Amino acid sequence: MKVYKVEILVIDHGNLGADEIKSVIENQRYPNWCISPQVKNIESRDIGEWTDDHPLNKRSTADAKYKELFGETK
Predict the structure, then answer these.
(1) Rounded alpha-carbon distances, angstroms, from residue 19 to 12, 47, 67
(2) What pLDDT is stored for residue 74 in this prediction?
(3) Over 1-48, what HEC string results?
(4) Chain segment 16-65, per-residue pLDDT in tens
(5) Contact (CB, 8 A) for 50 and 3
(6) Between residues 72 and 26, which one has the greater pLDDT?
(7) Which residues contact 69 (CB under 8 A, 6 or more apart)?
């Protein structure tokens, strides 16, 4: 399974892939057109098999795993 960094973390349960994730985010009709996102950069990492015990699935370990996968954030 892959995860994507678009300054948000998308866990790709549906195996959409980077292009489709970008399309879904950009083409969603948000209430009252309150935001109009444009994805400028997207990075992916393979995280192996997903389980309920995966570090990204737990609040206590998700931030550390994110930093491990993508490096320090702002």
Answers:
(1) 12, 18, 23
(2) 57
(3) CEEEECCCEEECCCCCCHHHHHHHHHHCCCHHHCCCCCCCCCEEEECC
(4) 999 999 899 889 888 887 888 888 889 999 999 999 999 999 999 999 99
(5) no
(6) 26
(7) 3, 5, 45, 47
Does this model's pTM top 0.85? My answer is no
Q: With b meaning 16 or more CB within 10 Å and e meaning fewer, what string describes 43-61? A: ebeebeeeeeebebeeeee
Q: What are phi and psi of 9, to 5 degrees?
A: -100, 120
Amino acid at 17: G
**Which 8-state DSSP code applies to residue 59?**
H
